[in-house]
Amino acid sequence: MVKIAVLGYGTVGSGVVQVIDDNYNEVATSAGEEIEVKYILDLRDFPGDKHEAQVVHDINIILEDPEVKVICETMGGIEPAFTFEKKALENGKSVCTSNKELVAAHGPELVELAKKNNVTYLFEASVGGGIPVLRTLNTSLKHEKIDAITGILNGTTNYILTKMNKDGADFDTVLKEAQNKGYAERNPEADIEGHDACRKIAILSSLMSGEYVDSNKVYTEGITKISTEDFAYAKALGCSIKLLGRAEKKNGKFFSMVAPFMIPNDNPLASVNDVFNAINVHGNMLGDVMFYGQGAGKEATASAVVGDVIDIVKHDGHISVNMTDKPATLSDCGEYVRRFMVRVALSDKKAAMDVFGSNVDVLSTNEVNDEYAFVTSKMPEKEFAAKTESLGVVKNYIRMYM
Ligand code: HSE
């Protein structure tokens, strides 16, 4: 029997307890031993809860109990989670977490600390909710040279974009729905401004390169500027609009970014809808492989945390993770070459043509009458930024996925 503790009895933490309750035998069979939740750390009491008796308010009870082998940190945020995780590792307890903010900010240090103490630090649930992509990168794909990872990495924004597209729904209403379903972050700005997807692509970029990609250096745009008009143009182009995280090694350069993209409908990423996430990994020998599943939500995310617990129970000592503190050198995304969909008022058509030239694909749509929209020729991002700045009247633009 292995005893574990869960830090934080919120959406994911209560899901972890539920997975262990509901799948008790399956978990035991997979781990080779029964797994029991000995403690649940939370500031609150949970009178009437089935696990009321396991709730404690003092982390030291858990840290000082030699019976506890694994700690699941599902509190989120940097502090006190960081301090608790460090203390747990120093006390010879393995840690698994869904806390992408913490992994993105301090992952290398925590991996190193785990190694030093001959225990393990795993964070499958920090990227893609229930999708087992990190373990696959760390095992089955470890021999590959991964040159590109492209993902729909945030369930909340994908849910919003899907509803806006299919039902013409209004942004705020759909965001509320996502919050009620437990998909969104406590502060949904992290979702809609792209910060959550940014942390996830930074983690994937770090694992892809074996170096540390600082999420603060990843160029990030969210979905707050996307409007119903953009969906009309996407339709005219045979595309879907998705918030993508993209990491790519190309001609000796390494790019990592998050932004909304127009993706052609024949690309499998275009049909990833609602709260689902998908991550396409390209390896030099393997080619493309795509992972698809629920990217947010209680049970799915908790299942990934429990998967880490099982991995830890099955392996004595330290499980290595391809994340080091050597800083990665990211190239300037301004060098990335692509096409852009641009919208201006019809009255600004001439000015737009003067700046972008006539070598553009004009979009004809009956749905948006007072606008002129076009797709530019290929150009580096920084050239595009300079042109839009000099034009000064762009209503919105969206990158084309090529
Ligand atoms: N807020 C996150 C999302 C939760 O919507 O994807 C899962 O990380």
Over the alpha carbons, how many angstroms does the gyration radius reach? 23 Å
**What percentage of residues falls in helices of 4 or more residues?**
25-40%
Spans of 5+ residues with little confidence (pLDDT < 50)? Answer: none
Number of strands: 18
Q: Indicate how many domains the architecture comprises.
A: 3
Roughly what fraction of the amino acids lie in strands? Answer: 15-25%
CATH superfamily of the largest domain: Dihydrodipicolinate Reductase, domain 2
Give the terminus-to-terminus CA distance: 51 Å
Q: Tell me the number of helical segments per DSSP (H or I, 4 or more residues long).
A: 14
Q: What is the CATH C-level name of the largest domain? A: Alpha Beta
Which class best fits the helix and strand makeup?
Answer: alpha/beta
What summary fits the major beta sheet? 10 strands, mixed
Q: Mean of the pLDDT scores?
A: 95
Tertiary shape: elongated
Structure characterization notes:
36% of the residues lie in helices and 24% in strands. With 402 residues, it is an alpha/beta fold. Helix 4 (81-90) packs parallel to helix 5, helix 7 crosses helix 8 (171-180) and helix 13 (349-356) packs antiparallel against helix 14. A hairpin with a 2-residue loop joins strand 9 (239-250) and strand 10. The protein contains 14 helices and 18 strands. The strands form 3 sheets. Strands 7, 8, 9, 10, 11, 12, 14, 15, 16 and 18 form a 10-stranded mixed beta sheet that branches. The chain has a 6-stranded parallel beta sheet with strand order 3-2-1-4-5-6, sandwiched between helices. The model has no long low-confidence stretch (mean pLDDT 95). The N and C termini lie far apart (51 Å). The chain binds L-homoserine. L-homoserine (HSE) binds at residues 129, 154-156, 183-185, 191, 196, 295-296.
